[in-house]
Prior knowledge:
The structure holds two protein chains of two kinds.
Chain A: E1 4-11, E2 15-18, H1 19-26, H2 30-37, E3 41-44, H3 51-64, E4 74-80, H4 92-99, E5 106-110, H5 116-129, E6 135-143, E7 158-166, E8 174-186, E9 189-190, E10 199-200, H6 206-225, E11 234-237, H7 243-252, H8 256-260, H9 265-268, H10 275-284, E12 292-296, E13 301-311, H11 315-318, H12 325-330, E14 334-335, H13 338-344
Parallel strand pairs in A: 2-14, 4-5, 4-6, 11-12
Antiparallel strand pairs in A: 1-7, 1-8, 2-3, 6-7, 8-13, 9-10, 12-13
Chain B: E1 4-11, H1 22-37, E2 44-48, H2 52-56, H3 61-68, E3 76-79, H4 85-99, E4 104-111, H5 118-126, H6 141-156, H7 160-174, H8 188-193, E5 196-198, E6 201-202, E7 212-220, H9 221-228, E8 234-243, H10 258-271, E9 280-282, H11 288-297, H12 306-311, H13 328-332, H14 336-351, E10 365-372, E11 377-385
Amino acid sequence: MTIGIVGYGAFIPRRRIKLEEIAKVWGADAPAYKRGLQLYEKSVPGADEDTVTMSVEATRNALARSGGVDPADIGALYIGSESHPYAVKPSGTIVAEAIGAVPALHVADLEFACKAGTESLFIAQSLVKAGEVRYAVGIGADTSQGAPGDALEYSAAAGASAFIFGGDEDLIVAEIVDSFSWTTDTPDFWRREYMHYPRHGSRFTGEPAYFRHSMSSARGMMAKAGMEPRDFAYAIFHQPNGKFPMRVGKKLGFTHEQLETGWLSPWLGNTYSGASPIGLTAVLDIASPGDLILLTSFGSGAGSDSFVIRVTGRISEVQDLAPKTRAQLDENKIYLEYGAYAKLRGKIRMAE
Amino acid sequence: MRDVAVIGIGMTSFGELWETPLRSLWAEAALAALDNAGVDSVDLITIGCMSSGLFTGQEHLASLLADELGMAGVPAARVESACASGGLAVRAGFAEVASGLCDTVLVTGVEKMTDVDGADATYALGTAADAEWEGFHGVTFPGLYAMLARVHMQKYGTTREQLAHVAVKNHANGLLNEHAQYHLQIGVEDVLDSTAVADPLNLFDCSPVTDGAAALVLTTVERAREIAGDKPVVVITGSGLATDTVTLANRGEIAELGAVKLAGERAYAMSGRKPEDIHLVEVHDCFTIAEIMATEALGFFDLGFGGSAVEKGLTSLQGKIPVNTSGGLKSKGHPVGATGVAQVLEIVTQLRGEAGQRQVQGAKIGMAQNMGGSGGSSVVHILEVV
């Protein structure tokens, strides 16, 4: 049975903070950070934006591109995030209510550091493939946290993307050709209960975690599908900063041209669960029928999901039906100073 | 005092060896050295290690590691002098053989530094400074060496570019060392453009955080000749150990490394050699300024001329006195307790003529200088092939 994406959408908040603005506060070497991490600015959620609201926006954009999928026919909805607004109480129920998909559906919140987004895609497409549900929604969204002054503060950003999967051949805009996952217990990044900010193993997050898992997953995916880098029009990797996705792509044999469309992190930051899936929305926004796309996520802890996706002839009919990702990234920006940023991110201790 | 020879050498590759624990690193180097020496029993094991407690939560290394090698029962002792712990382990082993207390000693150095994150590693290394008068006030080693650099620049006109030349040269040498942590070709601009750490020192002025171990087998020259047959034997002809104030503020002069000068003088005196006799030297370049100051303290260049010497290429592989042919701490890596042992290992490799592409032609006499803290301790050894 052929299954695939019948609708996709992204949401990126309008607010931004430049790397220099953060570096200024901490006395850090901004030019060296920009060169080293290839980060220029990042998105910041507004006072009324969180994982749930951004997920609703992204899912509405996906519905707008879905060719009239009735939300009542959605049988499953999953949100991957590490910034669910509640520790106990699902995000997915709020989103399902907001889009009108309740009550006959299965909902779950997922967490796997930055991989939770593609996890939701993995499970949603699997249920459709198994014939258990007609449509399933997979969402990756985060308002990610970085401790003040930590290296993560320069990258931790906000954004969401949503994908509706289905098996109606006339609705599919991008077929899921194959998938593969590569997982080990590698504790490179974590946040225990009651900790406000995550901790990370600094350089241990690089080679043993990000690079090993991303490369093993991408190679395993291509081997399983019998494909090589030159078969793909686009490749998208998890984007914890600007440097890593380009380096991992090039180590695997992809060219700058194959990588640049889905490479948003220098101007978006790291949207954690949203990161590589938002990259996929940027690629789908400009992809042509027949294009093959490799999507490889990475989540600390650690694991990496890969998908081979083939764009169908219906893509051009839906690209303009919702705000495009690159436009959300490049237009209508509101730049913040650090004080306003600190307020919005809850970094200021208020009177009780 | 008996003459002492180095008959075996062994080391791990240096690097971020995430999946290898301290005991395995150490055993790999120790077994390689015993194998290289062709002996299977020793009278003593010395271990140089700065802070396995803070880096890995493990103290009581001497017994732990003897057992790891299947040698429980053999005398073993850990010595510590901050980043000079490895050099001190060599000195301790040398003294045991020279004095006749032991005939054959396994000298080792090890540090496992990547089990903790950067902040904790900086803290652990910082305990080598004066806790009450430096550490509690927040200064860490990049800051202390930055102060040394500032004073040296002000007093002698040493330039920012000259500091960079140390890193460029050592990375060029490290490219030729298969055990080095980094195989990177860099230029002066790369150093100047790297992230500021403690002005004027940038990232590429600093040695890295490294896991690794190195080992030597020492014995009497008589036994070395029996084992070596007609092959050349490398002998330790000079050993010097010295201290200085740990606290920079207590030094009368901070643009000179007093402990290095004293340890060097003692090693020269024991060996009867002078700076002009030395064919190559491994110095403790934990920061680029440290190499410049060490080459001055050891008498290779007059005070204030270490910077121009490296800029002119006098310390390069083909220079007047090749410095840090191994790549030094900067490129080979700096597993602190292992460094002093690995420096002697490089000199032995060169004197044996086994250094491959980085071989200094005709090298017969070499020196290794190891240093603790910001120069609060130093160990210098002179080795000759006979």
